[in-house]
Task: inverse folding
């Protein structure tokens, strides 16, 4: 028994060491590539992996996404580098963890110019680069989202501009399309408001027009924090009917995003773009609906960091990838798929080798996720979370027997947990990672952009 524990311990140490030593290594094959192809990166803010049909959600939230990516690469175990929009997005754009790029909310930091965004790299290689996002988080100065783009469109409805661009474009292009439509407050068009919860008769106002009226009655203008507080003031968080309705509203918004996605794909297909365009759908983080006694996206539990990652590469067949990967790997993966060598000095690595050999056992499946007051290290088997917010606390989960992270084993599996603690704290030192205290407003994260 003792020998068994020692052997198991040696195996865990060995895989953690391998992951740290060979963080940037890759074994690329050339099975999945599309040299000089155009690229569309479609990012849906706050999209949980489990609420999409293609990931076996029983509700029909995403028929167009499901049908299109049936011919794509489906990553089942992709994780975001953070629970928050800004740090996670900058990781997607740079291939660096938040501790490297240092972009955190309200930190007033500027992305260092030696960290190149994917748009800047595409620009160097002669791509036309366009960013379409709403009047939203990606407008944040200093985070570098505008870098490398020929044009940045930030109207609330960018659809006409997207189709205008596609109508006239000649040559290769990189489009970043980002939507915040899924973010709370979960307001929906009246046509779709009750599509997944017809019998609801509680106090939540999910209809956009009724909510505008409520804002008028409460003298609230377009202040995002005030709007969110007003929406949540009508929610009884301990009432399961209200929680169910929040999820139904969220799902109806996925359905509406999916309608636009379907329209975009049809347009691309009709004009022959699907022969030479790579299309990626992902999210910066998920959302919690009371799974761990809370809402929104404040922690590093899986319902928040487990995200969809779907990649269409022309002339390839459906490929399911179950290896655990991080979105820090997305930008080097996209670059290598079109034949551009990714920067060598970044935290992420290209996943092209996995796309060509989906059944290969990847030795480097350790990923990290971080936000102001939390850090997490995750392997396919275990997850260790450290929280520093006034006091220090730890959580340790056996994901094989407890995938929903409900039983904190910290203090019970001393051998394994000490290895994970050492690995996480070693990583913090290597990354020069520092914790930030966060003040919560109204017991939620509202007010912290
Ligand atoms: Zn976000």
Result:
């Amino acid at each position: 028994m003792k020998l068994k524990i020692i052997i198991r311990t040696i195996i865990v140490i060995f895989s953690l060491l391998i992951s740290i030593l060979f963080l940037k290594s890759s074994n690329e094959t050339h099975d999945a590539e599309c040299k000089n192809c155009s690229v569309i990166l479609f990012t849906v803010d706050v999209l949980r992996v489990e609420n999409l049909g293609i990931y076996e959600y029983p509700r029909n939230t995403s028929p167009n996404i499901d049908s299109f990516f049936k011919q794509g690469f489906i990553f089942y175990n992709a994780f975001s580098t953070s629970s928050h929009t800004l740090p996670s997005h900058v990781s997607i754009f740079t291939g660096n963890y938040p501790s490297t790029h240092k972009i955190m909310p309200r930190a007033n930091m500027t992305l260092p110019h030696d960290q190149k965004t994917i748009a800047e790299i595409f620009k160097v290689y002669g791509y036309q680069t366009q960013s379409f996002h709403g009047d939203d988080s990606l407008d944040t100065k200093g985070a570098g989202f505008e870098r490398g783009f020929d044009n940045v469109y930030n109207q609330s409805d960018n659809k006409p501009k997207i189709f205008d661009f596609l109508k006239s474009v000649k040559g290769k292009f990189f489009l970043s399309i980002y939507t915040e439509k899924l973010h709370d407050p979960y307001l929906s068009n009246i046509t779709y408001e009750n599509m997944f919860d017809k019998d609801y008769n509680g106090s939540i106002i999910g209809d956009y027009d009724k909510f505008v009226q409520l804002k008028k009655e409460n003298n609230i203008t377009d202040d995002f924090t005030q709007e969110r507080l007003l929406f949540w003031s009508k929610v009884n968080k301990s009432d399961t009917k209200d929680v169910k309705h929040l999820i139904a509203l969220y799902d109806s918004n996925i359905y509406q995003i999916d309608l636009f996605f379907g329209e975009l794909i049809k347009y691309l297909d009709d004009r022959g773009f699907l022969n030479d365009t790579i299309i990626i759908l992902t999210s910066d983080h998920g959302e919690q609906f009371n799974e761990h006694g809370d809402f929104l996206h404040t922690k590093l539990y899986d319902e928040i960091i487990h995200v969809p990652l779907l990649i269409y590469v022309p002339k390839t067949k459906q490929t399911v990838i179950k290896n655990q990967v991080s979105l820090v790997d997305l930008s080097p993966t996209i670059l290598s798929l079109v034949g551009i060598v990714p920067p060598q000095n970044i935290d992420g690595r290209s996943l092209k080798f996995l796309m060509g050999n989906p059944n290969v056992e990847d030795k480097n499946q350790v990923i990290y996720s971080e936000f102001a007051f939390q850090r997490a290290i995750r392997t396919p088997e275990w997850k260790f979370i450290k929280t520093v917010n006034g006091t220090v606390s730890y959580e340790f989960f056996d994901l094989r027997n407890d995938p929903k992270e409900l039983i904190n084993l910290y203090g019970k599996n001393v051998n394994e947990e000490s290895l994970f603690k050492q690995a996480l704290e070693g990583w913090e030192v290597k990354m020069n990672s520092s914790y930030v205290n966060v003040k919560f407003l109204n017991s939620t994260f509202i007010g912290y952009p």
Observations:
- The CA atoms of residues 166 and 268 lie 8 Å apart.
- Confidence is low (pLDDT under 50) at residues 9-30.
- The pocket of zinc ion is lined by residues 45-46, 85, 284-285 (CB under 6 Å).
